[in-house]
Amino acid sequence: MSLNKEQVKEIAQLAKLSISDSEIEQSTIELNNILSLMAELGEIETDHVEPMAHPLDMSQRLREDVVSEADLSEEFQAIAPKTGKHHFLVPTVIE
Amino acid sequence: MHTLSVAELSKSLKNKEFSSVELTQHYLDRINRSDLNAFITVTDDLALSQARAADVKLANGSGSILTGIPFAHKDIFCTKGVKTSAGSKILDPFISPYDATLSHKLNIENMVMLGKTNMDEFAMGSSNENSFYGPVKNPWNKKMVPGGSSGGSAAAVAGRLTPFATGTDTGGSIRQPSSLCGITGIKPTYGRVSRYGMIAYASSLDQAGPLTQTAEDAALVLNAIAGFDEKDSTSALRDVPDYTKTLRDSIKGLKIGIPKEFFSEGLDSGVEKVITESMKEFEAMGAKLQEISLPNSAYAIPTYYIVAPCECSSNLSRLDGVRYGYRCEDPKDMNDLYLRSRSEGFGDEVKRRIMIGTYALSAGYYDAYYLKAQKVRQLISKDFKKAFQNVDIIMGPVSPTTAFELGAIKDPVSMYLADIYTLSANLAGLPGMSIPAGFSNNLPVGLQMIGNYWSEEVLLNAAHQFQTQTDWHSVLPENI
Q1: pLDDT value of residue B235
Q2: In chain A, which among 24-83 make CB contacts under 8 A with chain B?
Q3: Average pLDDT over chain B, rounded to an integer
Q4: Neighbouring-strand partners of residue B449
């Protein structure tokens, strides 16, 4: 499987990254080099192997549904690029 | 003072040979004179105020064994009120509003934070050249890389700019720079140290640990940072032993497995010689060597470089220029805000891994890449489980070469190949360690030790015993 420039642009768009026309050539080569490294995995027979999502054989811990965190909204707002009163400001989404 | 270990400093502080303020000022002076670029932020004022508080505790006898000892945090651990950048432009403006659990645990020991160390951006790299704040120099030869991603932490310890430093290891990021800088580093079992407040790269692989001068120091620090944390859902609910208790045990009869795959093509002959010599040292101490096989270990590279980018593409999606971190100038709409904040904020390697992960997880490719990698991960893990039925510990090289020159490896795939011996321990979730084992071409070589799950004390015991028989860990770079 090898990616073309159009596919690389599409992946970048999905990842919310922009790639300029001058970078696209190099990016496509690099991504294809990396993907050809992955192709080695095709050599291994894995039909009956259970996928391993996590190193520890553990189940999700549950806890009582009680308030555990203090209200830190002011601290979080203080480090945001742009804020209004109790909200984060972004460019207009709906006119 | 700066050539003393944590254990020695602790005794000196207790005996009032010097105060924590004097010790802290000494290290701050060393950092400010250094040209290694090992630090992103130096917290002079905070350090001195913490040192004054520590001196009060030491004077009234209420301090712990770590009270008043200075250290440095990898800039991936959130530290309240202090910039936490993860080596990235996108987090350059980020002043953390809270402490990571690991930071909190060292604070309650009344330790002294000297600053935050340089690192590959979001811990993605093996040379520390992927930092927004510039590369770090290796104290053994300033033309060389210190390794990565905890390169700043390793260089700072090797250059004796701090008694020890914290680090994280997702694919070798504690062990490889420890090896390249000639220091001791341990990556505990996945789940042993809380990941809360440690900026996530690949959540099923990331684990924190100390970079120190000696195994004894690693045990002291691990005692303070290991343990269950309800704020981390992957933290293990298990008792933590006192790691210093077993350091002095004999290792007579210890069964050491040597994987033949770790001595294959690509291993530098100088590195191989050092590792073989250190095996003889263990044999002389009564350990029993036996060859083992980890047949799937070569597949660790493609497996890791699918799993880690998939997890990173998800983890790093939260960096969007909205709630914290860098935002581009004058965004014209939401899409422009996301695109430009992320494209201007992330470096090349981070973008590459996000794109690989995005592709591997996208509709139609998931089975071929991510699912396949998870299955091979299972096979790699089973190889270890089988090996540990017959041996207590696995040993081999950390890295196929000693430190390489800054700028020498430009191709991403060639850089990935250098992680061949470290990745599999992360994929399996096993603890691993690097200890100084000798030199090749005047550059340090680290010996890697991989243990069974939750057997950090076995690694630390073997490492400490090696360090009582050898003095590689106390050899210093020139002009220290």
Answers
A1: 94
A2: 27, 30-31, 33-35, 37-42, 44, 46, 49-56, 58, 60-61, 63, 72, 75-76, 78-82
A3: 97
A4: B395, B433
Nearest to B203 by CA among B147, B116, B104, B123: B123
Place of tokens 């005996």: B15
Are the CB atoms for B474 and B459 separated by under 8 Å?
A: no
Instruction: Name the band, by pLDDT with cuts 50, 70 and 90, for residue A1.
Output: low
Rounded mean pLDDT of chain A? 91
B74 flagged as catalytic = yes
- Asked if pLDDT for residue A70 goes beyond 90, the answer is no
Of A17, A33, A90, the CB nearest to B413: A33
Could you give the percent of chain A with pLDDT greater than 90? 68
Q: Looking at the DSSP assignment, which residues form a beta bridge with residue B70?
A: B112
Rounded CA-CA distance B412/B202 in Å is 18
Residues in chain B: 480
Direct distance between the N- and C-terminal alpha carbons of chain A, in angstroms, rounded to an integer: 43
Between CA B241 and CA B372 the distance in angstroms is 37
Q: Is B280 a catalytic residue?
A: no
Q: What is the pLDDT of residue B264?
A: 86
Contact A80, B324 (CB under 8 A): yes
Confidence of residue A68 (pLDDT cuts 50, 70, 90): confident
Do A88 and B337 touch, CB atoms closer than 8 A? Answer: no
